[in-house]
């Protein structure tokens, strides 16, 4: 009999290990995440990346090699890999963190690169953004610098629902730089209260329903009614 707890635990462990491997191997391809699902033909692996061409490779060589690695080292049965770009890369914290790390490795100044990152995030419609760069950024002594714009939730239910957070590492001659990107997505907060606009008044008009109008002139008198009944 199959141990259900062990089965789902192993499944989650495999998903985490594949995610860590792809993030480390393809961070320069702006890796955003992966989805793994079981199919009758094998395993479907959908990889989201800002630059899919790097993962696919020339004539699909890189993706074929990746399929062999996933089958051999992660025990994924007949993996069918699909690479797709994320819906909005500027609102994905992982994409922006890897993009900032690659920019730092190319020699850009950390403060300028962080400002450009925040501006791109806010122009994409985010409610708030925060970028933290740490390491030997200005001297031999390690320190960190934080840039923030808009609203960034730190606690509460909004932290789980609206905030996306990612960490990346940039390797430079001065040492290792840590990069942290926090994005508040443009989702309506559950505690946001808005007042509805009042409807236009009817101007004192009174509407009466279920009323029957009787014409008094055409209505016969009580005596006439009795004589008609006597006849």
TrEMBL record:
Source taxonomy: Archaea, Thermoproteota, Thermoprotei, Sulfolobales, Sulfolobaceae
Protein name: Small ribosomal subunit protein uS3
GO biological process: translation
One MF term in the entry's GO annotations: structural constituent of ribosome
The keyword rRNA-binding is assigned to this record: yes
Signal sequence range: none
PROSITE patterns in the cross-refs: KH_TYPE_2
Cellular-component GO terms for this entry: cytosolic small ribosomal subunit
Pfam families per record: KH_2, Ribosomal_S3_C
InterPro entries found in the cross-reference section: KH_dom (IPR004087), KH_dom-like_a/b (IPR015946), KH_dom_type_2 (IPR004044), KH_sf_prok-type (IPR009019), Ribosomal_S3_C_sf (IPR036419), Ribosomal_uS3 (IPR057258), Ribosomal_uS3_arc (IPR027488), Ribosomal_uS3_C (IPR001351)
Function of the molecule: Binds the lower part of the 30S subunit head.
PANTHER family to which the protein is assigned, alphabetical: 30S/40S RIBOSOMAL PROTEIN S3, SMALL RIBOSOMAL SUBUNIT PROTEIN US3
Stretches for region Disordered: 202-231
Gene of this entry: rps3
Assembly: Part of the 30S ribosomal subunit.
Keyword rRNA-binding: yes
UniProt source species: Metallosphaera tengchongensis
Domain KH type-2: 18-97
Family: Belongs to the universal ribosomal protein uS3 family.
């Amino acid at each position: 009999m199959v141990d259900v707890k062990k089965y789902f635990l192993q499944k989650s462990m495999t998903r985490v290990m594949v995610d860590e491997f792809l993030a480390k191997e393809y961070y320069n391809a702006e890796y955003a995440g992966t989805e793994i699902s079981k199919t009758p033909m094998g395993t479907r692996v959908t990889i989201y990346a800002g630059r899919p061409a790097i993962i696919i490779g020339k004539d699909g060589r890189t993706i074929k090699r990746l399929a062999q690695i996933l089958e051999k080292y992660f025990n994924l049965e007949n993996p069918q890999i699909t690479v797709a770009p994320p819906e909005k890369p500027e609102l994905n914290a992982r994409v922006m963190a890897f993009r900032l790390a690659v920019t730092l490795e190319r020699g850009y100044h950390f403060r300028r690169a962080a400002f450009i990152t925040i501006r791109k995030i806010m122009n994409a419609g985010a409610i708030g953004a925060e970028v933290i760069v740490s390491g030997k950024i200005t001297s031999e002594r390690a320190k960190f610098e934080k840039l923030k714009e808009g609203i960034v939730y730190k606690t509460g239910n909004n932290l789980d629902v609206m905030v996306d957070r990612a960490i990346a590492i940039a390797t430079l001659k001065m040492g290792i730089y840590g990069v942290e990107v926090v994005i508040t997505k443009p989702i309506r907060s559950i505690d946001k209260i808005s007042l509805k606009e009042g409807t236009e008044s009817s101007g004192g008009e009174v509407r009466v329903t279920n009323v029957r109008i009787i014409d008094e002139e055409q209505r016969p008198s009580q005596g006439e009614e009795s004589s008609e009944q006597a006849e």
